[in-house]
Every structure is written in C-alpha cells, then in structure tokens.
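Sequence dictates fold. Next comes a concrete instance:
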Amino acid sequence: MKRLLASLFLFGWLVSAGAANPVVEMRTSEGPVMVELFADKAPKSVANFIEYVKSGHFNGTIFHRVIDGFMVQGGGFDAAMRQKPTRAPIENEAKNGLRNEAGTLAMARTADPHSASAQFFVNLVDNRFLDYPSRDGWGYAVFGKVTEGFDVVQKIGRLPTHTVNGMQNVPEQPVMIESIRIVDAVPAKSTQQ
C-alpha cells in the first residue's frame, strides 16, 4: 500500500509539473511493443501498472485471451494457466475521457467496475462500446497506447486459439510476456484526446 501511495504521489507531482508520461517496452515472444502510459489522464491505473512492472509481476506471463477483431488480454496467468497473485483492485478510471481505440491499453476487470488489478488488454480495433459509460454504467479504463509494435499485437490477435480448463480463446502456442520495463518518457501533452 505504501508503494502504491508513493507511486500515486510521484505521478501526481509529475503531472502537476507538466512532466512526461512514462514509456514502457514490452518484450513478447512475438516481438517488442512500446507503450506510452497516460499518467496525466489515468494516474491510479498507471501507478498500479508501474508497480506491477517494477515488481516483475508481468515477466513470464502470457496473453491468455486473444480474440481477432476485438482485443488481446494478458498479465494474469503463466504458461501453465496458473493465475498469479495480485494486489488489491483499483478504482475504475474509465471517466478519464480516453477511448478504447485500436492500439490502446485498458484495465481488464470482472463485472465489478472496481475489480481491475494486474490484467490488461490491448484493443485491436475501436471498441467504443467499452467506453464510459458502457452498458454497466462504467466502462473499461484506458491508460496507455501502443506507439511502436502494433503489428506485433495484431499478429498475436490472429493466432489460432483453443479452450483450456474452460477458458476460451487461449492461444494454442503460449505467447509470453518476457518482460516489461520503463524505458523513457514523452511530454504529457501527447496524450490522445
């Protein structure tokens, strides 16, 4: 909890100082993907994601749900389809004005709007029905966007899938998230509108 509060303070200070949004490199078994994280628009979601990055949580996880023409989801399971433990869920920030457009990252959650923890997804197409206010009145909080390597994400989206232990749309060959690390920052004003 102290680490999350410290991260929120840091991101709040960065945003108020007009500083930059963090950029992370996601190394996958299909290739690298660069992502700008919108700390200026989704500070809690970004702080949460950064804490998982710093702890190494994502290293060795897989994209466990892949639906071509929709999205690819990862960050919660290892290659044996064992769910990794997570910290407490975070508040839903879908009211931040960002849209679930092709290439954006959003927090995955259950039917409970405030249940997002470590899992995230990358939209393969514009999924406006996931924007605030969605059918459940909340939506799915966008917190970043792929800036390089969207072709890698699209390739993952086209992989053949099957059902494993009752979970549908699991790639037949595991797609690993080998690592995610903070690499740079860009001016906060570049955030999509």
